[in-house]
Amino acid sequence: MTWYTLLVLAVVAERLAELVVARRNTRWSLDRGGTESGRGHYPAMVALHSGLLVGCLAEVRLAERPFTPVLGWTMVAVVVAAQALRWWCIRALGPRWNTRVIVVPGLPRVTGGPYRWMGHPNYVAVAAEGLALPLVHGAWVTALVFTVLNAALMAVRIRCEDRALARLPAVDAPA
């Protein structure tokens, strides 16, 4: 389980790096007149994502979940792909990427990078990671609970984000 703990801790480190980027981008957006939407669901999102990371380790340890190589290594590949997609989103949005919903008035909606093919690719990465990370080591209860709760949260979050983005001009922007 030591290597799995290191994998989860690597995801924790990645999430902390995201928060550093998000804090910098929040300042950038607010300095340009950005407005935040959806503050009410943000604490639930933080709790859910924190619970995922704790749940991965707790379930594997307490329920003595085994590592099944075919499933485990496949899920490691999904986790890595999810991280790559997430950072592609961060790069495509540049200083507009955030863990919060902050829209800067007058800036066009980004339609490059992964946004060329889907409206909310970061949430695809979140869903994939939330399913795959626990399943790397057989933590199926954590995977199931996160997936169900995340689907409910994303229904709220995507509606909020779509309403906020609808205020942006519909022109192509460099990504």
Please describe the topology of this protein.
Elements: H1 2-31, E1 35-37, H2 42-62, H3 69-93, E2 101-103, H4 121-135, H5 140-165
Antiparallel strand pairs: 1-2
Task: Give an overview of the whole structure.
- The protein has 175 residues and is mainly α.
- The chain is 67% helix and 3% strand.
- It has five helices and two strands, in the order H-E-H-H-E-H-H.
- The chain has helices at residues 2-31, 42-62, 69-93, 121-135, 140-165; strands spanning 35-37, 101-103.
- The protein has a two-stranded antiparallel sheet with strand order 1-2.
- Helix 2 (42-62) packs parallel to helix 4 and helix 2 runs antiparallel to helix 5 (140-165).
- The longest helix has 30 residues, at 2-31.
- It is elongated.
Please sum up the structure shown.
With 175 residues, this protein is mainly alpha-helical. The protein has helices at residues 2-31, 42-62, 69-93, 121-135, 140-165; strands at 35-37, 101-103. α4 (121-135) runs antiparallel to α5.
